[in-house]
Structures are given as C-alpha cells and as structure tokens.
Amino acid sequence: MEAGADPPPGAGPPLCLADVERAAAAVLPREVWDFIAGGSGSETTLDANRAALDRLFLLPRVLRDVSRVSTRARLLGGPAALPLAVAPIAYHRLVHPEGELATARAAKAAGVPFTVSTLSSVPVEEIAAVGGTVWFQLYWLREPDRALELVRRAEDAGCSAIVLTVDVPWMGRRLRDVRNRFGLPGHVRSANIDTGAAAHESPAGGSAVAAHTRQAFSSALTWSSVAALRARTGLPLALKGVLTPQDALRAAEAGVDAVVVSNHGGRQLDGAIPSADALPEVVRALDGRCEVLLDSGIRSGVDVVRALALGASGVLVGRPVLWGLAAAGEPGAARVLELLAEEIEDALGLAGCDGVTAAARLRTVRGDAPAGRAPVAGPAV
C-alpha cells in the first residue's frame, strides 16, 4: 500500500494510536520509517520516555459529578479544544504529498494548535493560510539575522507563538539514519530555509539530514540569543527542550511565556532523563512563573491526563500525527486527534474530573517506587 492510500476493505477504523502506528509502518519505506521512529544512540531515552509514562499511575476520585466533562484548555495564551498541540516535525511530505497542509487542516478541525517546523516541507505562509492556531518552531541558525527573519515571516503569516528549540546544537547521532545513509528524496525539501543539495546527498557512512543541520544550525545558541529573540518578538515565546529546574527558572527570568519539558522524543542526548520524570521538578521550581508543557512519548489520552496531574498545562504530540498522515492522509491525521479527544474525555471522567483544571489536582504514584519512598504526587483535593 502506498503512503496515504485507503486502508484495505474490512480493516475498520483504528481504535487506538498503536493501530495507527502499525498502519503507518506497513506503508512507509523502511528508511523513512526509521527516520521518523528512531532515536539517538542505543535509543535508551526513546524507550525510557514510554516506560516513565507507563509506570505513572493515577489515583482517581469517585462520587464526583462528571455528567459534563470539558477538554478545553488554554495554551500559550490562546484557547484550545484539547490540552495538546501538534508538535513540530520536519518534512511531512516524506509521508504524504500534501504534507503539512493536510496535518494543519486536521489540527484546525480538531481545534488544537499546529506547530510549523523550521524544516517544514511547505512554506510557513502556506501552512498559516490554512487557518486555525499556528505556532512557529525556530531553530537558531548560524546567521542570527536569518533566524530573526524567519520570526518576521512567521509573524507576518499570522502565527500566534514562537517555539524556540534549545536542545539541538547539532542533530543527535541517530544510528538508523547513519546505517541507511538517509537523505531527503528529490520531491521533499526544506521550504523555509535553502538547503541546496546538502540534505539530499548522503556523505559516506552518514546521514545527509544530519550533515545539513550541522551546517545550518548554530551551536552557539545561548541565553543572549534568547534575549535577542525576546526583544525581537511580542508573540508568546516558549523554549522547547528544557529538562532541569535551573534552566526553567532561567527561562522565566528571561521573560519566556512557557517551557516545554522535552528530550526531543529521545532523538538528541541518549541517556537524558525521560521527559515525564523531569516534569515534576520543573513545575515545582517554576511555581506558576510561566506555563509548562510536556513533550516526548505521549501516546494516549491517559498520558495527557498523567501530564496534567504532574502540573503541565498541556502536551505536544508528534509522531502519532505523522503516522496518521502516512496511513490515510488528512483523514488519518484527523483520526489521531479524534482518538486523543475521545481518550482524554474518557480518562478525565473516569478519574473523577470534570475538566482539565480538575486533573491538576489528581495524585499520582510511581508503580516501581520502592517501599518507604514518598510517591510523586500532586496536591490532594
């Protein structure tokens, strides 16, 4: 089956994100699947992201009126139908001809923000023209003026927030891509920054995409760069890739509006802490100074409620949306967001929560916490 083709007769609609993942894996070329699914190094952190969420258990409350459950939230100053945004992912046209246009339309229909990657395969202006809430993810480039020009383009296009990725001085060593000598096919290009042939022609024993990003991205991104960006834009600003309370506090002092607790989906430093494990300390340190979002490993509505219980205002969801796009185009991406909406409402209600705010008062425990150790917990109601 080709990417974007209809599912075989009788297959039925996917009932969970794992169904969508299997459908995408069945249609994508192996090297493209590896590019999307893989992590860095031995993929320890990639696997740990899921393990951290799976060992986090909710303590549901009972005898609460959940006859009406709201999934609405506010993210980066704006309303959202769900406490989630579509994470920035490069090169959607790798998996479907319409690329980001299709996923942006699905996000608009679902009422959730869509984050345009600097490395999107459709220009930011065309994606923003789809409508809905659109954020722009920025990689700091070797020429800072070019990075700030991208911010201007995003503002002019109507994007409502800037998300600066801070954990990529260069791309992590992703062994699947190295073994595949992965490069972009001819029909896919970075539409916002000129890559020439760099991202298409693999060096011997390497990844063309990694080689290109090493050429394009700045490894000198510092707090002074954040200050320059903060001074340049009046849009809400989030830093994505924060894992320590020290960096989170520094971000708040720098005037950012949100931090995204993220290890880049296990694609940067292998051996970095799982994002869900880092979240509670970041939330405690910030104590409301700015918004906190969680990224990396979200695969269900229960995961979203887990993040809310740990103090996040919402999450970013990446790979699953791309699986949906690969499996069935725009309807596939829309189905992923529909499933998450159903699962979030279900999890909230069954946990005794009538909305997102109530979920923040749920307590949680670690399933593998040794006897005598205090569980990771939110405040009791």
Automatic annotation (TrEMBL):
Catalytic activity, EC: 1.-.-.-
EC class name: oxidoreductase
Keywords from the named record: Flavoprotein, FMN, Oxidoreductase
GO molecular function: oxidoreductase activity
InterPro entries for this protein: Aldolase_TIM (IPR013785), Alpha-hydoxy_acid_DH_FMN (IPR012133), FMN-dep_DH (IPR000262), FMN_HAD (IPR037396), FMN_hydac_DH_AS (IPR008259)
The FMN hydroxy acid dehydrogenase domain, residue ranges: 9-369
A Pfam family per the record: FMN_dh
Cofactor(s) listed: FMN
Keyword Oxidoreductase tagged: yes
Family per similarity comment: Belongs to the FMN-dependent alpha-hydroxy acid dehydrogenase family.
Protein name, entry field: Alpha-hydroxy acid oxidase
UniProt source species: Streptomyces amakusaensis
